[in-house]
């Protein structure tokens, strides 16, 4: 059966204020069992697409593949993925948490941590990779498998979203983000380990420090992340796989069919 995700879920005041204070929040049961099954099937199909519009950013044998087997913009290759990625339910939850007056898609990415020979996703912020002038863009990270410290669950440092102006971290040869002078107030010992049941999710601000454990099990850890930005967010001019070749000039509002308004 084909699922419909056009309903909205009212988050609690506690969830909204937790997100605004700490830069992340956990939300249980974002998907029903039936929706989860369908998303797993869609995502497996989308990961196998050859020559589509989505971008496979790592390949078997690459060092990066040990951190993440990642495919960006699955929604452009697979109608079923598009229904999840463009869904009102997730975007509306992002709107409630951020308080944005409108929410646009930046991109989705499938994030598989492959079995056994995998590496942790090092501590980093997401926003420095994004070609945006304004902060505030954020991600939903939906677990397609139960996750804990053995197979790649995430950790977040509460309140670290207040730290701006840091550089990108090389996810393969990472510098220690905590040793950056700008991160001096951030204590890695305060990090929250977020174990999730499949179908549950977290939302995190693009500036929140986060990490994911290696996957030491014999099954992939599958997750779908979708990045949302405030309607009106402008292009910084930096290179990014989703904006390169799209004709944007520095300062232009990120909009159009690649960046649809979802809520
Ligand atoms: C991961 O899924 O391992 C990392 C996700 C992220 O960095 O947002
Ligand atoms: Ni990240």
UniProtKB/TrEMBL annotation:
Record's keyword terms, sorted: Dioxygenase, Oxidoreductase
Record InterPro entries: Phytyl_CoA_dOase-like
Pfam families in alphabetical order: PhyH (PF05721)
Record bears the keyword rRNA processing: no
GO molecular function, one term: dioxygenase activity
This protein's name: Phytanoyl-CoA dioxygenase family protein
Provenance organism: Cohnella hongkongensis
